C-alpha cells in the first residue's frame, strides 16, 4: 500500500481521496477550508495536514484537484507548496482541469527536484468520482505513469497515458470542445420539440435509440425539459475550461467557431445568475426568449 497525499477536497477530490483510503492506502489530506479536511478524516480515518507541504512530506504520490492554473500553483509551488515537501523519486499527479502550459511548467519544476509530474484531468463528474468510475487522461513520462496508474485505478475505470506533459490536458480540451456544441444542439432540439407541440419526452425516448444518442441526451433530457439545472457540472467551470480551449486554439491554429459561440451563451447564463447551474442550462436561454 502506498503513502499518498491528496490536496483539494472539493466535489471531486473528496470522494477520490476516499477511494484511495478505502483501498487501504495511507492518505494524508490538505484542504484550504480546514472543516472539510476534518470531516474527511472523521469519515475515512486518515490524517490531515496544515499545509500542502506538510501533507506531501514523505508521500510516494501526491494528488491535487483544485480549481484553475493559479490554484494549482498555490498548492504546488512556493515554500508551503507540495513540491517543497516531496522527496526525489516521488510522483506528483494533478487532477485539476488546467492548461497544457501549466502541466509543462510543473513538470520542469518537478524535474529540478527529481520528482515525476503527471497532468491527469478527469471526466465523469461528481457521480463518476463518487462511484469510482472516472476517465483519467494523463500526460507525462511513461515511468511516472506506470507507477501512478495502479493508484489512480482506485477511482478510474479508464486511466490512459496520452503522451508527454500537457497531453492529458489537451485531451480533456477535446472532451470539452465536443461537449459544448453537443449540449447546445440538444437544447435546440428539446426547445424545438416543445414548440412543435410534440411530446418531448416521447421524442427523446425514440431518438435516444438512434444516431442522435449521446451521454448528454441520456442523462440530461428529462431535467432540461423540466427546467432543472441546480446540479451537475457548473457553468463557471465550463467557462474556465472553454477559455483554456480557446487560448490553446490561438496557439495551435485550430478553428473553434461553435465552441466560441457556446462560450458566449454560457456567459449569458452566468449573467442571469446561473454560474453554478449545470451545463445543460443552455436550454434556459432558448426557453426564456
Ligand atoms: N465537478 C465536476 O463535475 C468536475 C468534473 C470534471 C473535472 N472537474 C474539474 O476538477 C477540478 C475540481 O472541481 P470540483 O468540482 O471538485 O471543484 P470544487 O468543489 O469547487 O472544489 C475545489 C477544491 O479546490 C480547493 N481550492 C480552490 N482554489 C484553491 C486555492 N487557491 N488554494 C487551495 N485550495 C484551493 C477548494 O478548497 P476550499 O474547500 O477551501 O474552497 C476545494 O477543495 C476543477 O478543475 C474542475 O474543472 C470537475
Describe the protein in words.
The protein is α/β, with parallel strands linked by helices and 289 residues long. 54% of the residues lie in helices and 14% in strands. It has a six-stranded parallel beta sheet with strand order 3-2-1-4-5-6, with helices on both faces. Strands 7-8-9 form a three-stranded mixed beta sheet. Helix 1 (13-22) links the parallel strand 1 and strand 2 (26-30). The chain is globular. The site of NADP nicotinamide-adenine-dinucleotide phosphate has 24 residues, from helix 4, strand 7 and helix 7.
Identify low-pLDDT runs.
none
Portion of residues in beta strands equals 5-15%
Whole-number average pLDDT? 97
Count of runs of 4 or more consecutive helical residues = 14
Query: Which sequence of strands runs across the widest sheet?
Result: 3-2-1-4-5-6
Classify the helix fraction into a percent range.
40-55%
- Hetero groups: NADP nicotinamide-adenine-dinucleotide phosphate
The Rg value, from CA coordinates, equals 20 Å
Task: Tell me the overall shape.
Answer: globular
Rounded to the nearest angstrom, the distance between the terminal CA atoms is 56 Å
Biggest beta sheet attributes: 6 strands, parallel
Order of helices and strands: EHEHEHEHHEHEEHEHEHHHHHH
Which structural class do the helices and strands define? alpha/beta
Number of beta-strand segments: 9
Amino acid at each position: 500500500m502506498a503513502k499518498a497525499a491528496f490536496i483539494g477536497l472539493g466535489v471531486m477530490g473528496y470522494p477520490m481521496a476516499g477511494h484511495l483510503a478505502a483501498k487501504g492506502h495511507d492518505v494524508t489530506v490538505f484542504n484550504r477550508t480546514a472543516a472539510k479536511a476534518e470531516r474527511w478524516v472523521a469519515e475515512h480515518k486518515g490524517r490531515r495536514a496544515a499545509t500542502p507541504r506538510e501533507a506531501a512530506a514523505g508521500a510516494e504520490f501526491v494528488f491535487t484537484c483544485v480549481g484553475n492554473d493559479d490554484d494549482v500553483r498555490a498548492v504546488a509551488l512556493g515554500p508551503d507548496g507540495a513540491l517543497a515537501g516531496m522527496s526525489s523519486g516521488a510522483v506528483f499527479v494533478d487532477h485539476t482541469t488546467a492548461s497544457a502550459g501549466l502541466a509543462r511548467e510543473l513538470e520542469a519544476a518537478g524535474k529540478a527536484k527529481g520528482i515525476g509530474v503527471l497532468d491527469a484531468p478527469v471526466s465523469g463528474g461528481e457521480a463518476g468520482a463518487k462511484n469510482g468510475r472516472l476517465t483519467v487522461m494523463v500526460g507525462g513520462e511513461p515511468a511516472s505513469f506506470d507507477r501512478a496508474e495502479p493508484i489512480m485505478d482506485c477511482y478510474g475505470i479508464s486511466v490512459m497515458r496520452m503522451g508527454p506533459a500537457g497531453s492529458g490536458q489537451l485531451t480533456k480540451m477535446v472532451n470539452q470542445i465536443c461537449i459544448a456544441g453537443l449540449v447546445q444542439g440538444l437544447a435546440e432540439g428539446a426547445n424545438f420539440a416543445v414548440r412543435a407541440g410534440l411530446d418531448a419526452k416521447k421524442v427523446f425516448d425514440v431518438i435516444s435509440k438512434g444516431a442522435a444518442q449521446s451521454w448528454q441526451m441520456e442523462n440530461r433530457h428529462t431535467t432540461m425539459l423540466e427546467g432543472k439545472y441546480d446540479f451537475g457540472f457548473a457553468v463557471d467551470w465550463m467557462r474556465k475550461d472553454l477559455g483554456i480551449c480557446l487560448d490553446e486554439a490561438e496557439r495551435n491554429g485550430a478553428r473553434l467557431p461553435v465552441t466560441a459561440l457556446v462560450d458566449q451563451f454560457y456567459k449569458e447564463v452566468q449573467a442571469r445568475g446561473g454560474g453554478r447551474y449545470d451545463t445543460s442550462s443552455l436550454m434556459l436561454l432558448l426557453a426564456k426568449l
